[in-house]
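Hello K.,

You asked for the raw outputs rather than the summary table, so here they are, unedited. I folded two proteins back to back in the same session to keep the settings identical. This is the first:
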Amino acid sequence: MTSTSPQTALLMGLSFLKGVGPAALKKVAKIPGFHELSIEQLSLEIPQLSKALADSDAWPRALEAATGQLDEMERYSARALSPLDREYPKLLSATKDDPFLLYVRGTLAVEQEQSIAIIGTREPTSHGQQTAIRISQFCVEQGWSVVSGLALGCDSIAHQATLDAGGHTVAVLAHGLQMIAPASHRKLAESILEAGGALVSQFRFGEKVQRQQYVQRDRVQAGLARGVIMVQSDVKGGSLHASRAALEYGRWLAIPYPTNKDCGNEEPKVQANLLIANGEDSERARLLHCTTAALERVLILHSKADYSTLVNEMNLSNTLVVQNQDSLI
């Protein structure tokens, strides 16, 4: 495990200045030798910094906050990453709204680009549970890392099935790495770390759960993966956030088709799957917040035999890991 680099530590300190977000940090990171310049010199280049430093106490406070973060990272054996670091996931940095600063405990996949997100409802049917397990095992067999959100239901099933199969998994959290939510998944989180996986978050140490942060978490899940498999969801499920993000990022989305039993029972948690599989293109695009052209990247899995389409998609995109080189620092 590496520690936080000096460049990333400085960027983290700047992030504590009022009005300085990912866009401003990207501008700073593009300045040659920025980490060797004084804060006054940097402020001449970046308007957001100049405005924030109008308060003479702003920078000392920011440095103090950054020092506190570094202390917490040491306490939890964690580190912060930015696109300046080789370890920062290229798939994530290729998205238009990457968090720029990523906090990590544990070990990311050696081949980070060979990652796939498996997500779904917190209340899957028995078939949904079986599907999450089977797909996770299949991903491990292919040598892929499984990304999910450590939530109840499909997420935790995917993580556990991956561990049981001897695979690598990454849990994306919607809060700082000082806690685990739900608390019932603390043991699972520790198992992920012990097995050589990772816990990651775009949120600083000390930040607790807020409702809107789950949407941001879901987008990071999609950003870390070559494609997303949405096991089950209703038409208003939170899993749709990551599914929509996958298509928005130019990646693929796979949807397992519900069983006859689940369809016959009119299970609420499979209604999004049914609409995406059987609906008119206009309805499907409306649900997924995408263009009809993007629907070409939606894969319907009717049985385990269709899992080979996931392999094909991974192989086809193997040379297209990062399409937008301008987004990289």
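The second followed immediately with the same parameters:
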Amino acid sequence: MLEHAVPEDAILLVDGVFLNRSELAGLWNYSIWLYSFPERPVAGGGPGEGPDPVSHATASLTAHALYEAEAHPRDAAVAIIDNSDVEHPRRVFADAC
């Protein structure tokens, strides 16, 4: 195991998909839901580069839809960021008030 000494006031940022699954959700003090074109196919897998990008995108979107239905990551997020315009991301206040 690799260990590093860090200051007491250090902040650890974790970026990834499916991080609000039930087995991980309690680990985070702050969670951000980043909204960014969910209907767009995911990158990678172009012609001659591995899996068919369309079927890969379909599988990815299906897995993501299941994740959203089970974990409700948008509801768990402290902040929601709309990044559909990458030049002008904006915070969305989606509370019930």
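DSSP finds two helices and three strands in the chain.

Happy to rerun anything if the numbers look odd on your end.

Regards,
P.
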